[in-house]
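Sample 3 of the quickstart, ligand LCLJCK34:
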Amino acid sequence: MPVTNRSVPPLRGLYVVTDAALTPGPRLVEAVEQALAGGARWVQYRDKAAHDNARRLDETRALRAVCLAHGAGFIVNDDTELALACGADGVHVGADDAPLAQARERLGPHAIIGVSCYNRLELARAAVADGADYVAFGSFYPSTTKPEAVAADPDLLRAARTLERPLCAIGGITADNAPPLVAAGADLIAVVSAVFAAADVCAASQRLAGLFAEG
Ligand SMILES: Cc1ncc(COP(=O)(O)OP(=O)(O)O)c(N)n1
Ligand SMILES: Cc1ncsc1CCOP(=O)(O)O
Ligand SMILES: [Mg+2]
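Result:
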């Protein structure tokens, strides 16, 4: 099945990333629904377990339906074949994943493909030249979800604006520390724990999504 070419929302706003520890199976769909109710525009399914493909397919199909109902975009982390199987809007790939060209070949021209560029502008230049739909930088702040992530500086976002492609910031981002990143040019703010570890997921999402409010 080709990846859907339904119209997706702009690549701007709050991008929530799921976590198998914070949002385990039974709570996953409800947590994502709460994040969407709070204003998240994009959702990424991030499950680093390489096994249990049946569970991963069930979960991604359920999340795709929820995103569709809210007019939000749905991306699968790492796994191009899973993105294809569940009909996601696209995939996010990093240095250890399938190359962008291979993901594009599998998912087709309408898929949204995001590429991790860590703290390296040259990776972003190459990804844009190869047709990335957005480029992601981080970690901007220490991350409990990915403590080993390299550190990135907001100046990178200022420099990357010249690429004229949506820029995503990730890593330790909260509603309190996100404003300088948005000011530096982040179009998407990708967040795991600030939303999914919150006691009130909807309220946490609302605060972050509010940073992109129009007017
Ligand atoms: C939006 C976004 N940005 C960066 C990443 C990190 O991707 P990667 O470097 O491939 O690391 P893993 O997430 O796969 O551990 C991401 N997933 N999403
Ligand atoms: C996947 C990833 N890549 C860099 S930091 C990170 C995790 C972000 O999670 P959190 O928002 O909890 O810091
Ligand atoms: Mg990856």
